Amino acid sequence: MKGTYTILLLILSNTFMTMAWYGHLKFKDLKWFENLGLISIVLISWGIAFFEYIFQVPANRIGFRENGGPFSLVELKVLQEVITLVVFMIFTLVFFKNETIKLNHIIGFGFLVLAVYFIFKK
């Protein structure tokens, strides 16, 4: 169960992270945000990233083997990276319609999935 909670918290964390890092690129499409300066954008993104930490820190504490969780530190990091890429790909396809996922992207993602396989292989 701790593994499931960890993964769900990582998904939530990475959703906020992706919004903080890349969501501001769509601000120009929103009337209220179109005239904001860089400092304002950074502060808004920083505020969004706060919620990333609210989920990321508990995910790592719950999931870490030395705290009674099922994952080693390396496994936690690899899980987080793959979840980040899945969330990013979904975000890109939903919010940035002009971006396309190409064959080389899919192949690269496949290699990352293989990395997860080898990291978790006992």
Automatic annotation (TrEMBL):
Matching PANTHER family: DMT FAMILY PROTEIN (PTHR38482:SF1)
Cleaved signal peptide residues: none
Swiss-Prot/TrEMBL keywords: Membrane, Transmembrane, Transmembrane helix
Cell membrane recorded as keyword: no
Entry's transmembrane regions: 7-24, 36-55, 76-96, 102-120
Listed name of the protein: DMT family protein
Superkingdom classification of source: Bacteria
Organism of this sequence: Aquiflexum gelatinilyticum
Pfam families: DMT_6
Keyword presence, tRNA-binding: no
